[in-house]
Amino acid sequence: MHIFLNGQILPEAQAQISVLDRGFLYGDGLFETLRTANGVPFRWAQHWERLRRGADFLGIALPYSSETLRGVAGELSARNRMSDALLRLNLSRGAGGRGYSPRGADKPTLVMTLHPAPPFGAVPPGWRLITGSSRLPAGEPLAQFKTCNKLPQILPRAEPAAAGADEALLLNTQGHLVEGAASNLFWFANGYLCTPPLASGILPGITRQVVFEVASALGLAAKEAIITPEGFLQSEGAFVSLTTAGVAAVSELDGRPLPPSPLVERIGQGFQEVFQHETMKNSS
Amino acid sequence: MHIFLNGQILPEAQAQISVLDRGFLYGDGLFETLRTANGVPFRWAQHWERLRRGADFLGIALPYSSETLRGVAGELSARNRMSDALLRLNLSRGAGGRGYSPRGADKPTLVMTLHPAPPFGAVPPGWRLITGSSRLPAGEPLAQFKTCNKLPQILPRAEPAAAGADEALLLNTQGHLVEGAASNLFWFANGYLCTPPLASGILPGITRQVVFEVASALGLAAKEAIITPEGFLQSEGAFVSLTTAGVAAVSELDGRPLPPSPLVERIGQGFQEVFQHETMKNSS
Questions:
Q1: Which of B134, B110, B127, B135 lies closest to B48, judged by CA?
Q2: Nearest-CA distance from A134 to chain B in Å?
Q3: Exposure string over B221-250, b if 16+ CB within 10 A, otherwise e
Q4: Which chain A residues are within 8 Å of B138, Cβ to Cβ?
Q5: Best CA proximity match to B54, nearest among B105, B18, B90, B87
Q6: List of residues 6+ apart from B18 with CB closer than 8 A
Q7: pLDDT category of residue A119 using cuts at 50, 70 and 90
Q8: A256: how many CB neighbours lie within 10 A of its CB?
Q9: Out of A27, A98, A142, whose CB is closest to B148?
Q10: Interface mutation target, options B112, B130, B154, B202, chain A, most CBs of A under 10 Å
């Protein structure tokens, strides 16, 4: 694999950073994962905007423009001969002095990698979900950015229960189900498509935004709502949205079944149409 | 500076890791910072025990024994000619596949570095504290370990208000003051030395443990208690405890004064005596 690191495209073995990089020491950074097709990254502008806002919030200067890095993404795709892939963009604050204060760390590290993507297309068969043991802090401003502090998301995927599960859902400190470790959460209730509000402490997913667009085009009423695990189990069907898989129906949570909803299939198809349309060759 | 990395002592420029290390990508790791004097790390066994418990919790296999790494600490001290320093030990899960699941990442990365230590001895003059904007999740199991997910601790040190401040205090999601970004919090109230309980979502600091020992030796009654910022400002004096500075009196929070307490000076002196006694040459 060839990797972009601070201005150079290098073989994987040479793509190395200092052990004093604050990304390594403290998770002091941000990342984005995008799906590409035909070498075209899906929703580049929205991912870039989330990264840019996060970098502003953390006070990390973006060392390259959106245009430059979009060009690099194309180059990586060609060099690695991977046109349908997952593109990962990682920005850290770079090396600095010891301690939490970021003062003096002013040479950010920027890495872009390409990874094989799981099969993509039809809505996956019902996913089995578990509830993770981490608790997300409700109202935490950091939650709106895709930071490199991901232990609360890693742990549920490492717990023994995760062995047979497709994804883990996380509760916030108020006891509400708010998001998946790597996905946003949707369910149907009383004729509405529902999803937790951003203020509950979740990441504003790009696929989540596309789901809203698709639901609107389908004439489905959507709203933000809070939900407990018990309430979720009484919903009229549910799905998660995520970059790697698009829309995935949920068939059970912690071994308890959720009813299938034909609407999940329609939203999934609508998502695929948007994805295919926007990633047609030369669509950029 | 010479650095220990996965079994070798290397010049700083050669101490490099893969950009695919999960420590860098997700903060998937743990660390410890110890104060050394005469080349002797203070409370090595307690720091090691916290690291070991954290590694168990995260499912990361410690690649070296406590004895081996304590020996490396001595070697680093000699190679860098720094006998009074800060020793940092960093353990990450190493490189793995893309995504949060740690499956397949089974070659941990272990780094040890030495850093100049700030002057140490007398209790520092009253520290000016600010309240940071991050919210720690009350009851989160991860809080009991010194993980590499430190953005909630970094941010308050990067906020504009931090410019003139010595340390930032953090609230948990229940609105209680629970710890400093890099310190534990103590205050005096109704004849008691008080500090927040571990269940409030704080790190079990090693210096915090030593403060308990010193208070006990001085005959001071100590207890765990919860406190709001308002309650804290009405206390009879306060201090923070931390590896880098030992015990530091607090003179103000967000510009509002706290009364000085002669007990802080006594605890600080008691701490220094313990530190000096345990780090005498050949005391290991």
A1: B110
A2: 6
A3: ebeebbbeeeebbebebbbbbbbbbbbbbb
A4: 135, 173
A5: B90
A6: A12, A15, A16, B95
A7: confident
A8: 11
A9: A27
A10: B154
* Of the candidates B138, B58, B134, B178, the residue with the CA atom closest to the CA atom of residue A135: B138
Tokens 């954290």 correspond to what residue? B54
A220, A263 contact by CB (below 8 A): yes
Nearest by Cα to B135 from A139, A16, A180: A139
Residue in A146, A122, A120, A277 with CA at minimum distance from that of residue A213 = A277
Q: Would the ipTM clear 0.85, i.e. be above it?
A: yes
CB A143 within 8 A of CB A150: no
Q: Report pLDDT for B281.
A: 72
Report DSSP letters for B130-147, one per residue: EEEEEEE-TT-GGGGS-B
CA-nearest residue to B89 within chain A is A25
Whether the per-residue pLDDT at A154 is higher than 80: the answer is: yes
Query: Most B CBs within 10 Å: which of A86, A151, A176, A242, as the mutation test of the B interface?
Result: A151
Please identify every stretch of chain B with a pLDDT value under 70, giving residue numbers as ranges.
122-123, 282-284
